[in-house]
Design goal:
The chain is mainly beta and 375 residues long. Helices cover 3% and strands 67% of the residues. It is built from one helix and 26 strands. It has one helix spanning 13-24, and strands at 38-41, 44-50, 53-66, 69-79, 84-95, 98-108, 113-124, 129-139, 144-148, 152-155, 164-167, 170-174, 179-190, 193-203, 208-212, 216-219, 222-225, 228-234, 237-254, 259-273, 279-294, 302-313, 319-335, 340-355, 358-365, 369-373.
């Protein structure tokens, strides 16, 4: 029976170990055109033959190279024939502006894949993205990082007060596209903005977030939902929202004497924000219906409808003016001392002015028709 320290040709143990130690440090990348893992240095190296395969156990400041990637750990176990390496204790992978750290990691030569586990942290300092989780897969060839088991993405900026945070059940970082993919129970938070959806795509270089499958947003006093929603940022400040398909928004305004609730629905909703993050204007397109009422009198809401509508807001995101085009119709209530009377009107164009959330003036133009119903 052969000793585990003896070759099939019977080389002496001492000669074999000297040969293995020398070959361990050869530049393996010269043997193949494609990148491969190369051992640069280690504090100690013990080699043995186990089941016919050379296995190296490395300890003490172990450093590896893979193309432009540097991998460090305090210990590693290398199966030479299979091209497999187990890294453990303070694993650190560095590539240009990217860095991945973890407690332990496996490398497989066959697919150039790193499997990381335990306190995984991926940082792209150029894109200002931090992704954390309990386990991850990182492809050295495609530069794709997939994290699951409590993953979290943070977009940080030293000039912004709030960071953008994304959580979900799985996260993927596509370096070639500079995009974070999140799926399953995705939650995004930044300042007053909170969104929920099943899927989200965050293009870091364009500062664009795409929410898909049952997206819902709460922002300050506004709530939005629809088939899909896009959020656009500039300098890490929210600048616009686009709701596509069955868009619906709810806006709450707190007045001195009462609270006003305004709902807006349409096929699509476009919203613009000021430099300070307050709502500036909104454009609603297709099958527009808007209702507004005092919370103390929600059973008789005022209503307007049409094909398109533009809403203008004040410096505190309060509704100031609404203008509708295309078969514009309105129903609003007027109070006198003894009753509350209803007025129905229609025309080509409708303009409404608001104060403290209440309509104070209304103007119709083009084919105007109206009915008055005393109560």
């Amino acid at each position: 029976m052969k000793s585990e320290y003896q070759t099939s040709k019977g080389l002496p143990r001492r000669a074999w170990l000297l040969f293995a130690a020398a070959w361990c440090l050869l530049p393996l990348c010269a043997q193949a055109a494609s990148p491969t893992l190369v051992l640069k240095s280690a504090g100690s190296n013990e080699n043995s033959m186990i089941n016919g395969e050379l296995v190296s156990v490395l300890t003490g400041n172990v450093v590896w190279l893979y193309d432009d990637v540097t991998i460090r750990s305090e210990s590693a176990k290398w199966w030479r024939t299979q091209g497999m390496v187990e890294f453990s204790r303070n694993v650190d992978i560095h590539r240009a502006k990217q860095r991945l750290t973890c407690d332990r990691m496996n490398y497989t030569k066959k697919n150039s894949m790193l499997l990381a586990a335990g306190n995984v942290r991926f940082v792209d300092s150029l894109e200002k993205v931090i992704i954390t989780g309990n386990q991850a897969q990182y492809n050295l060839q495609t530069r794709k990082c997939v994290l699951d088991d409590a993953p979290k993405v943070v977009r940080y900026d030293t000039s912004a007060v709030e960071t953008l945070t994304i959580v979900g059940r799985q996260m993927t970082w596509e370096d070639s596209q500079k995009v974070v993919w999140a799926k399953d129970s995705v939650r995004i938070h930044k300042g007053d903005l909170v969104s929920l959806s099943q899927y989200a795509y965050y293009l870091t270089d364009k500062e664009l977030v795409r929410l898909r499958v049952n997206p819902r947003i709460t922002y300050d006093r506004q709530k939005l939902n629809g088939d899909s929603i896009n959020l656009a940022f500039r300098d890490d400040t929210l600048r616009s929202m686009v709701v596509m398909g069955k868009g619906r928004g709810v806006y709450t305004e707190y007045g001195r004497s009462d609270t006003t609730r305004t709902t807006v629905a349409g096929d699509s909703i476009y919203m613009d924000f000021t430099d300070t993050g307050t709502l500036d204007s909104a454009w609603v397109v297709g099958n527009v219906v808007s209702r507004y009422s005092l919370m103390s009198d929600s059973l008789t809401p005022n209503q307007v409808s049409g094909k398109q509508m533009v809403l203008a807001f004040g410096d505190q995101s309060q509704v100031r003016h609404a203008r509708l085009w295309g078969n514009a119709m309105s129903t609003y209530y007027m109070e006198d001392k003894n009753s509350k009377n209803r007025n129905d009107a229609s025309g080509d164009t409708l303009s409404v002015w608001f104060e403290e959330g209440q309509a104070v003036r209304l103007r119709l133009s083009g084919s105007v028709r109206g009915k008055y119903f005393p109560q």
